[in-house]
Amino acid sequence: MLARRVRENSLGLLFPSGDADALYAAMRKISTSDMRQYRTFAAIYADSCSRNAFRESLLKQCKV
Question: Global pTM?
């Protein structure tokens, strides 16, 4: 489930669970520009998970 959120929201690189070598390779692969992009997408994703976003979603469902 976590990998799906990372993939669908462009939050970072994926690696197999428990594979330290793959994690190391992914960390070495990330550039500064990638980090800026991931930071931006993480902020957007965080906003979508806020209490206000949850409230708005509930209200929208009640109006249907």
Answer: 0.69
Q: Which domain holds residue 22?
A: 2-63
Cβ atoms of 26 and 13 closer than 8 Å: yes
Contacts 24+ apart (CB under 8 A), 43-50: 44/9, 45/5, 45/9, 45/11
Rounded distance, CA 21 to CA 59, Å? 46
Q: How far apart are CA 61 and CA 64, in angstroms?
A: 5
Structural domain count, the chain: 1
pLDDT tens-digit readout, 12-41: 999 999 999 999 999 999 998 899 999 999
Residues across the chain: 64
